[in-house]
Design a protein that fits this description.
alpha/beta, three-stranded mixed β-sheet, 7 strands
Length: about 230
């Protein structure tokens, strides 16, 4: 692939994909239009993607109703009913409130609370996070051993969070390794499930492996793969 092709591809993936909160901030209404088509390429299929889109919207609405200040600093990412919360809030009470609201929504299997209690970051920091996400998405797309559509990326304060359904532990490790070497990344946290290559329609339940501290969870023993730099 030529240098010009790589630049073009990086520009294309600069619009965040998947169900991360950055999609709303950067592309606004385009996320709703393009999200379903992207979700259809994932292992969980179109129906799972549509359900996650609806659940994300439901959680964001619930956060707004609970506290009008919550939707601004809190990013919501959803994958197969598992909810990742990132961002910064000024008080521990707001952090707990966000996790509590999300965990009570119907259809939520687990809540991974990565919200930090600290002052909000500036515009420059948000832009740097967006660049990291775009760079990592580009690298995953270019890697023949990774089905990039299964990985949803959320970057907050230079921390990269991966959530989705990989085909193997090796694929997760490969993606995590790539993320670690993206310039500016401070740590990598993975909440990836492992799903076999059986067609979605024939699957009864995803296989998974979990390592690390448990999340705030609506369902016990939710699978986690966690790695920090």
């Amino acid at each position: 692939m030529t240098h010009l092709h790589r630049i073009a591809l990086l520009g294309a993936v600069a619009l965040p994909l998947g169900l991360g909160g950055c999609a709303v901030a950067v592309v606004g209404g385009m996320a709703a239009a393009g999200g379903v088509g992207y979700e259809a390429t994932q292992e969980r299929g179109l129906q799972g993607g549509v359900q996650d889109i609806a659940l994300k919207a439901d959680i964001e609405t619930a956060l707004l109703q609970a506290n009008s200040a919550l939707p601004i600093p809190v990013s919501v990412t959803v994958s197969d009913g598992r909810v990742l919360l990132t961002g910064r809030v000024p008080t521990p009470d707001m952090k707990a409130q966000a996790a509590g609201v999300a965990s009570r929504r119907q259809g939520v299997r687990a809540v991974y609370d990565e919200v930090e209690v600290s002052p909000a970051t500036g515009t420059m920091a948000s832009a740097e996070d967006a660049v990291i996400t775009a760079r990592l998405r580009s690298e995953l797309i270019l890697d023949p051993d990774i089905r990039s559509a299964n990985f949803t990326i959320d970057t907050s304060d230079h921390s990269v969070y991966l959530i989705g359904q990989a085909r193997s532990q090796a694929e997760i490790e490969r993606a995590t390794q790539i993320a670690r070497y993206i310039p500016g990344v401070r740590r990598v946290v993975s909440y990836m499930d492992i799903r076999s290559a059986i067609p979605v329609a024939a699957q009864t339940a995803p296989s998974s492996i979990g390592v690390g501290a448990p999340p705030v969870s609506a369902a016990p023993n939710a699978p986690i793969q966690r790695e920090k730099l």
